[in-house]
Amino acid sequence: MTTSTAAKRVFVKSYGCQMNVYDAERMTDVLDCEGYQATESIEAADLIILNTCHIREKAADKVYSELGRLREMKKSRQEAGLDLKIVVAGCVAQAEGQDILRRAPAVDLVVGPQSYQNLPRLLAKTTKKRTVDTDFPVEDKFKSLPSPSHDRAKVRGVSAFVTIQEGCNKFCTFCVVPYTRGSEYSRPVVEVLDEVKRLADVGVREVTLLGQNVNAYHGLDAKGQSISLGQLLSYVSEISGIERIRYTTSHPLEMDESLADAHRDIPAVMPYLHLPVQSGSDKILATMNRRHRIQDYLAAISMMRHKRPDIAFSSDFIVGFPGETDQDFAATIALVEQVGFTSAYTFKYSIRPGTPASEMDEQILEEIKDKRLHALQALIAKQQRAYQDSMVSQTLDVLVERKGKYSGQMAGKSPHLLAVAFEAPADYIGRIVKVRITDSVTNSLVGTLAS
Ligand code: 5AD
Ligand code: SF4
To answer: What pTM value is reported for the model?
Structure first.
């Protein structure tokens, strides 16, 4: 077997949530130090990493069909005397470990999300033996991950993700996250601020702070005191160059006043909150082990609206959770009507092995799940469109992120996370400009530069 002498190339394909997008960057940073260049072309790669998602059955199944395709690719490479390494990372890796090696013979390495700092050592091991590392190391993996090089940091564009908290202790009965990402961990304040500073230095203007329970953040500051997300937002907003801050995903139980105050007092904190509720029925919330009632959710919404009246809300919903009756579903519809979401993610309940809900009686028929999903999606789409349409003839601050779909066009986001397209010079990327909105089309606003 020969390995090419040119620079090695790595292709990472991420599935699932934004944390996987961030992890893909960090894995590429580690490999950059080992001489691997990132490539956008799977055919050009010597190393392919599938950064997988285990949240729903469909997401997990995709991995195995992709691995089937990669097996063919590896075979033809080997016939040509070339090497191709295949790595499965992310939450399927964590959940299924050794089983992946058994089911997918082309895989060289299975690595869980807490072990990415070990990638170089693990890859070296694969020359002798197919390998699995799904340990939850005690040491701080973030500390062992190298900082991105200047060039690597620049790849992040003007809007970047930064994980500040990982894992979950809440154990909602439908969810695999506590098993795949482990228990809650908050990165220390200095570590977060250093990373954001480095990103700001290479042109990042907007950061989205990530965590499975991001508002449960309680990282330690330099004095060893734990600080809240609200306080962290204030520190991040002081970093020169950072003009916008977002965070996701929040849990209704962890909404505190310091966070609401941050939305009122810090201009860089965007008026947008993703606050999953999952269901509008107290009975279902209880069997989901969400540990709050609808009235608590509504109290959090009104606290935020009181401090920041224009704040936009999005949410996650699961339909067809075991035991969900027509009446429970009607309560979800009523909640959506009452709150008014500017966007939302809707899912059919998916049985996840090993979670308590997978063993509950009264699993719901697929046809009923489909019907409820469509009804909910139709209502949310209507709200989303009405909200977007209400922006026509307003002038919005838009962070210019990239070229638009048509020639001469640029694209960016409004403070409320609406996509906006408008004509502007390409070197406007990274600027916040005023755009007068002239039209609302499917999934985007269209406007003209007003400044
Ligand atoms: N089935 C369907 N949706 C799920 N989610 C998490 N677990 C499941 C499951 N088993 C959804 C929840 C969560 C989002 C990230 O994914 O709505 O907030
Ligand atoms: Fe999963 Fe619930 Fe934790 Fe969110 S809060 S990651 S839904 S267990």
So the answer is: 0.94
